[in-house]
Amino acid sequence: MPKHGKRYREAAAKVDKSRFYGVDEAIALAKEIHPARFDETVELHIKTGLDPRHAEQQIRGSTVLPHGLGKVMRVLVFAEGEAAAAAREAGADYVGSDDLIKQIEGGFLDFDVAIATREMMGKVGRLGRILGPRGLMPNPRSGTVVGAEDIAKSVQEAKQGRVEFRLDRLANIHVPLGKVSFEDEKLKENMAAVIEAVNAAKPKEAKGQYIRSATLTTTMGPGIHLDLAQTLSLKLT
């Protein structure tokens, strides 16, 4: 196990590991004790009761954070014709088809989100081995494979701060909520959007307790256990 630095140890000492913190208190504490000198990302980690070995219990989805992520999202779009023009008008940073595919095969990965029209997926599919491991492969379930008529909306949502979530091999979900510099209420509302989306994504085949625990942390900070009932009751007003 790697040794933690002094600033992390000081932060961890301020967290009562035996407590389950209310949402407001947890957000305030995470912002107060974050150990790094940069504007850390606030993250929500959810432990589920799902079994990742079963395909029907795999979940993947996305939601638009009402207050974004606090960073400029670089959006790449695979599209042609009118859809390509609509993507550019909506603010996409890179738009193309065969040319972009060749650039990515050549090592170009200077973007945060990749979106494709359905018509382009036959060509984009061969990028799976490059984009898949990096979480950049367009996917219908994450809202990044859309019809040409919806391309502008998808680009706008990605620019605003749409986050994707998926079950990892340990049955956990990890989602960024924004920056420690955000106002507390904005982080809380972003968390509410994530909770609503994760609740809505519950597989019909899920048995037992769907969400077992939730933890709030920052990029370099210690985990803060959340009061589960209060967390799961969060809703956007």
From TrEMBL:
**Record's keyword annotation contains Repressor:** yes
The record's GO CC annotations read: large ribosomal subunit
Presence of the UniProt keyword Magnesium in the record: no
InterPro entries reported in the protein's UniProt record: Ribosom_uL1_bac-type (IPR005878), Ribosomal_uL1 (IPR002143), Ribosomal_uL1-like (IPR023674), Ribosomal_uL1/biogenesis (IPR028364), Ribosomal_uL1_3-a/b-sand (IPR016095), Ribosomal_uL1_CS (IPR023673)
Please give the function described in this protein's UniProt entry: Protein L1 is also a translational repressor protein, it controls the translation of the L11 operon by binding to its mRNA. Binds directly to 23S rRNA. The L1 stalk is quite mobile in the ribosome, and is involved in E site tRNA release.
Alphabetized PANTHER family for the sequence: 54S RIBOSOMAL PROTEIN L1, MITOCHONDRIAL, LARGE RIBOSOMAL SUBUNIT PROTEIN UL1M
HAMAP family assigned to the protein according to its UniProt record, in alphabetical order: Ribosomal_uL1_B
The entry's family comment says: Belongs to the universal ribosomal protein uL1 family.
Name of this protein:
Large ribosomal subunit protein uL1
Query: Where does this protein come from, organism-wise?
Result: Tepidiforma thermophila (strain KCTC 52669 / CGMCC 1.13589 / G233)
